[in-house]
Design brief:
InterPro entries: ATPase_V1-cplx_f_g_su, ATPase_V1-cplx_fsu_euk, ATPase_V1_fsu_sf. The chain is α/β, with parallel strands linked by helices. It has helices spanning 14-22, 45-57, 68-73, 75-80, 104-110; strands at 7-12, 36-38, 61-67, 87-91.
């Protein structure tokens, strides 16, 4: 009997999500729900937050990749997530570079170490 691993979910702009889909991450769960959301100009913040929360609650998802500009739209929901799985990782997009000062996971990790630990 083979054991299936956990999936990666992606929320981001069309180019970001398409790149990951071409890399093979696209899946549908038993209810035919995808593990990705393409965020466009017409996508509401409520839709983004609903998709993010649904990914958090799916047992088959181990990592959620979210474009940092999308994470900024639902920052409160991203910062509320404290469980180790699924891991939420903020990534850059083509039009928006990564800003480490906005990354909630990185800010929490910095609080775990003193400057001397990092030398």
């Amino acid at each position: 009997m083979s054991v299936r691993g956990k999936l990666i979910a992606v929320l981001g702009d069309e180019d970001t999500v398409t790149g990951f889909l071409l890399g093979g991450i696209g899946e549908l769960d038993k209810h035919r729900k995808p593990n990705f959301l393409v965020v466009g100009k017409e996508t509401s913040v409520a839709e983004i937050e609903e998709a993010f929360r649904s990914f958090l609650n799916r047992e088959d998802i181990g990592i959620i990749l979210i474009s940092q500009c999308v994470a900024d739209l639902i920052r409160h929901a991203v910062e509320e997530h404290r469980r180790p799985l699924p891991a939420v990782l903020e990534i850059p997009s083509k039009d928006h570079p990564y800003d480490p000062s906005k990354d909630s996971v990185l800010r929490r990790a910095r609080g775990l170490f003193s400057p001397e630990d990092l030398r």
